[in-house]
């Protein structure tokens, strides 16, 4: 059995490395090529790259695991994300694509903010780079946790080896090929992920759970009569904590950077339609894996110690080894697509926004690209160390990092693109207050329990505080230089 699995996985790894080599030959001659692929991504590549780098192992591990353990009520997270992603494509994507090119061809989110608010350029570059590296170290760790769980659950291997093996493959093609390699591999990985999420629920429903929806529903009703209810036990705070995951989209650097790289503003609409179709199908598939996976486990008297490994369990039990290997590759695709995107954004912030800033000279393009490659490795190693705890939960790590970015950058990006009265001082106040609020909220444990009741997801207070800080400080300050920049 293992031979067929390894054949499929070997083919997947070879495809990823070949793509990285192709991208190295095609587009790494300048920092714009390495960081943004020359701003020439076709709509389909941009769309699936944004989707694949967004969903990560959360789509095949975290969300199905939450649905498996709790029931359909957890689907509100997916609903919130879908609505948030749609708003992100409509509000942010076209404006960011146009304005990042207009403001001195900004290659990163921090450089765009610095060019948009020149009076606070240095502070915004430095603070943004720090926030990006800190939260991405945690976010990247969540992906590596997924790789460790795959090796541990599917192959009865060592969890830590799985973490470093996953990191090693991602580092190889990311360091070699840069943004184009990451985007092209994301496109392939996105196709693999969606296909897997279409195949598995169908097979589980008819070959695994047996009898179709009716018998699966009966099995789940025996577990919990309200298992398939969207509202059972749902409080207002619980609903808000789930639906407001969608707010995080406006501030995710590894996602919105794809908007900066799409071929043209006119291509954004086509990319949006492709991306949202992909996301809708993939979320429905993840829902099916978690819910129908629970029916399969119950009907067959199986035990599952970690609900986040339901996809791995079903892949190993129900399919031919070659298909099992393909499904494992889909899981790795979900993990690697996000990890590579996060590592590249972190490295671009360090090389473009930190390294250039601290030098007293203008570095060559080759030097900046090489510094970016070293930064990819450095951030990856830190994330690997964070991920070494085998008790880590994918969904928990993703939730923390997602909230951090959503609060620190979400209100900032939205207002920077749409409100001409915003000032640099307001931008600094927003990013600092949003990030600090999220960190303090987590440290105080208020995301688990707040005022004796259920916890409040940290993105809610973080987003509100940052939004208020930006508006309040901007109205209290003025900058003629920044207003003239908007007019020009």
From TrEMBL:
Keyword Ion transport: yes
BP GO terms, sorted: proline transport
Positions of transmembrane segments: 6-24, 75-93, 122-141, 161-182, 194-216, 236-257, 278-297, 309-335, 371-388, 394-417, 424-444, 456-476
Subcellular locations according to the entry: Cell inner membrane; Cell membrane
An annotated GO cellular component: plasma membrane
Reactions accelerated catalytically: L-proline(in) + Na(+)(in) = L-proline(out) + Na(+)(out)
Record bears the keyword Metal-binding: no
Membrane topology term: Multi-pass membrane protein
UniProt xrefs under CDD domains: SLC5sbd_PutP (cd11475)
Keyword list, A-Z: Amino-acid transport, Cell inner membrane, Cell membrane, Ion transport, Membrane, Sodium, Sodium transport, Symport, Transmembrane, Transmembrane helix, Transport
Classification via Gene3D superfamilies: Sodium/glucose cotransporter
Major localization listed first in the record, in broad terms: membrane
Molecular function GO terms recorded: L-proline transmembrane transporter activity; proline:sodium symporter activity; sodium ion binding
NCBIfam families linked to this entry: Na_Pro_sym, sss
Family membership: Belongs to the sodium:solute symporter (SSF) (TC 2.A.21) family.
Function according to Swiss-Prot or TrEMBL: Catalyzes the sodium-dependent uptake of extracellular L-proline.
Protein name as annotated: Sodium/proline symporter
Biological source species: Palleronia marisminoris
């Amino acid at each position: 059995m293992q031979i067929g699995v390894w054949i499929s996985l070997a083919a997947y790894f070879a495809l990823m490395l070949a793509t990285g080599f192709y991208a190295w030959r095609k587009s790494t001659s300048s920092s714009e090529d390495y960081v943004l692929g020359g701003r020439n991504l076709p709509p389909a590549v941009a769309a699936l790259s944004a989707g694949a780098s967004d969903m990560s192992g959360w789509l095949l591990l975290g969300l199905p695991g939450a649905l498996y353990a709790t029931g359909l009520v957890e689907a509100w997270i997916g609903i919130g994300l879908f609505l948030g992603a749609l708003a992100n494509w409509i509000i942010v994507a076209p404006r960011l694509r146009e304005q990042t090119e207009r403001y001195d061809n900004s290659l990163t989110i921090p450089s765009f903010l610095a060019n948009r608010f020149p009076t606070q350029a240095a502070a915004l570059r430095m603070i943004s780079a720090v926030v990006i590296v800190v939260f991405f170290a945690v976010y990247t760790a969540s992906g590596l946790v997924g790789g460790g769980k795959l090796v541990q659950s599917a192959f009865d291997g060592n969890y830590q080896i799985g973490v470093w093996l996953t990191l090693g493959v991602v580092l190889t093609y990311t360091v070699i090929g840069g943004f184009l390699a990451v985007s092209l591999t994301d496109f392939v990985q996105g196709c693999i992920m969606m296909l897997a999420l279409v195949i598995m629920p169908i097979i589980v429903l008819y070959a695994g759970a047996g009898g179709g929806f009716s018998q699966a529903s009966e099995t789940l009703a025996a577990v919990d009569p309200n298992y398939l209810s969207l509202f059972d036990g749902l409080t207002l705070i619980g609903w808000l904590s789930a639906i407001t995951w969608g707010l995080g989209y406006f501030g995710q650097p590894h996602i919105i950077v794809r908007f900066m790289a799409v071929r043209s503003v006119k291509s954004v609409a086509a990319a949006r339609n492709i991306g949202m179709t992909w996301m809708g199908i993939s979320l429905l598939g993840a829902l099916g894996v978690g819910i129908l996976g629970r029916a399969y486990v119950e009907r067959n008297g199986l035990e599952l110690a970690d609900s986040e490994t339901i996809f791995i369990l079903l892949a190993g039990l129900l399919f031919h080894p070659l298909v099992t290997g393909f499904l494992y590759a889909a899981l790795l695709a979900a993990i690697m697509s996000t990890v590579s995107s996060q590592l590249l954004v972190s490295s671009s912030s360090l090389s473009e926004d930190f390294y250039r800033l601290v030098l007293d000279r203008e570095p060559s393009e080759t030097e900046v690209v090489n510094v970016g490659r070293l930064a990819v490795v450095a951030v990856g190693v830190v994330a690997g160390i964070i991920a070494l705890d085998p008790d880590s939960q994918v969904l928990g790590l993703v939730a923390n990092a997602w909230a951090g970015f959503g609060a620190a950058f979400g209100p900032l990006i939205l207002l920077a693109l749409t409100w001409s009265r915003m000032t640099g001082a307001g931008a600094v106040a927003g990013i600092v207050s949003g990030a600090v609020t999220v960190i303090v909220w987590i440290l105080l444990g208020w995301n688990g329990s707040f005022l004796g009741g259920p916890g409040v997801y940290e993105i809610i207070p973080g987003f509100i505080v940052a939004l208020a800080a930006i508006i309040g400080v901007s109205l209290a300050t003025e900058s003629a230089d920044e207003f003239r920049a908007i007019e020009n």
